[in-house]
Design a protein that fits this description.
The protein is built from 14 helices and 14 strands. The chain is an alpha+beta fold. The strands form 4 sheets. It has a 5-stranded antiparallel β-sheet with strand order 4-3-2-1-5.
Length: 425
């Protein structure tokens, strides 16, 4: 998509949604610029009358956009405790993140660092986006943006975008596959028959096997009993590519609404750093289906993150399904051992309700009551994860195509670093 195809800077867009069990979208309402604030342009939302009268209509997220008439101003939250934001979180979760915006900047603005409007990003990104929403210029005709591209084309488009190079017209479709997926690293959405996938590419700046390390971690997570999607490492154009099964798609063309933990907790981007696992646990207790199981799963993920050296567990790396009635914990993703220059490490969000965030197992144990777990439950989980990693590390590393040298370097540095076992109480 080019500047001319978007026309002038848009002031609104129609929001289309795939309702539960539906294979085609319907228009839900319109998001439009209604003013400015210290947060930037304010994008308010209103449901369409036809949607409100539709059988089976659901709210896009009841705490933000309840299913009723009126215009919802995101700077004036309906529920006390939810923070003002420039756009409703459930809509922002469908927008591209750093990588997608970089690709759009190159295609629309010819500059990887230009800042475009939020509506431009929503309308210029591909329609096969994460979750069950899309954004269109029409309320009556749904025209998906996108097309077919090979994995090789996706890899070439990603490499050009990373380098800040012009993306030629013959790679425009391929580049579009990278515009509607979250995160900051090179990636793209693709389909393979009836499989819906995310391809995560190596970066030209990688000085370690990032793609293969994430693959190994995801495989270890499955051994630990964590709910994770299937993954596979491929070699494309001489580079490693991690292919991940999408969990927001259903057979027959359906889509599942997906919300970040940032939206679930009602926090803004800048205050997310003050969030904590106990805050997530409280939300699960009050608003999720099967809360006891979800709490155990979240604690298992916390312990696993600490054990594999993944301290990038911010609120956009936790998500939940929304079906109009309740939330459900989504599978874990982005479980990536992070570079470690020293032994000391801290998680992205606090582990305990009093602010401890050290990447250490004693801190996880301290947090156990927030997950409705006993000290014995916490000990069992820690022992299960640690012993499982030791038992299955070699198998997972081989499945991820890590070399023996890479495997040995990761173990003891990122994975099961001695620091996690220190008890500093």
């Amino acid at each position: 998509m080019t500047t001319s195809s978007l026309g002038a800077v848009p002031d609104g867009a129609f929001v289309w949604v795939w309702l539960p069990d539906a294979s085609v979208p319907v228009v839900a309402g319109r998001v439009q610029v209604t003013g400015t604030s210290e947060l930037g342009a304010v994008l308010s939302f209103a449901y369409g009358r036809s949607y409100l009268s539709r059988d089976g209509a659901i709210s896009l997220f009841a705490p933000e956009l309840p299913l009723q008439q009126g215009t919802f101003d995101p700077t004036a939250p309906l529920i006390p405790g939810r923070e003002p934001t420039p756009i409703a979180g459930c809509l922002r979760d469908s927008a591209p993140d750093a990588w997608g915006r970089r690709v759009i900047n190159l295609r629309v603005g010819s500059d990887p660092n230009v800042e475009l409007s939020e509506l431009t990003y929503l309308l210029a990104s591909g329609s096969d986006r994460i979750g069950a929403l899309d954004f269109q210029t029409s309320a009556t005709e749904y025209v998906p943006r996108g097309g077919d591209a090979t994995l090789e084309q996706l890899a070439e488009a990603a490499a050009r975008a990373e380098a800040g190079e012009h993306i030629p017209d013959d790679l425009a479709v391929a580049a579009g596959h990278g515009t509607s997926v979250g995160g900051a690293r090179p990636k793209a959405l693709l389909t393979d028959g009836d499989r819906n996938l995310i391809a995560k590419f190596s970066s030209s700046t990688d000085d370690r096997p990032v793609v293969k390390a994430e693959a190994a971690a995801m495989m270890l997570a499955r051994y630990a009993g964590i709910d994770v999607p299937e993954v596979e490492v491929l070699r494309v154009s001489g580079k490693d590519v991690l292919v991940v099964e999408r969990f927001d798609r259903t057979p027959g063309g359906g889509r599942r609404m997906l919300l970040s933990a940032l939206t679930v907790l009602g926090l803004g981007e800048y205050s997310a750093r003050y969030a904590s696992y106990p805050m997530l646990a409280d939300a699960i207790t009050t608003s999720f289906r099967h809360p006891e199981n979800a709490l155990r799963e979240l604690f298992l993920r916390l312990v696993f993150n600490v054990c594999i050296g993944n301290n990038d567990d911010h609120l956009r790396n936790h998500a939940a399904f929304w079906d109009g009635v309740a939330l459900e914990l989504a599978p874990a993703y982005d479980l990536t051992p992070q570079p470690r220059r020293t032994s000391v490490s801290n998680q992205a969000i606090a582990v305990t309700d009093d602010g401890y965030r050290s990447s250490q197992l004693w801190v996880c144990r301290k947090a156990a009551p927030a997950f409705r777990l006993t000290a014995s439950d916490a000990d069992d989980t820690v022992d299960h994860v640690v012993s499982g990693i030791r038992e299955h590390w070699k198998d997972a590393a081989e499945e991820a195509h890590l070399t023996a040298a890479e495997r040995d370097t990761l173990m003891g540095r990122e994975v099961l670093n001695p620091y996690i076992f220190y008890d500093q109480r």
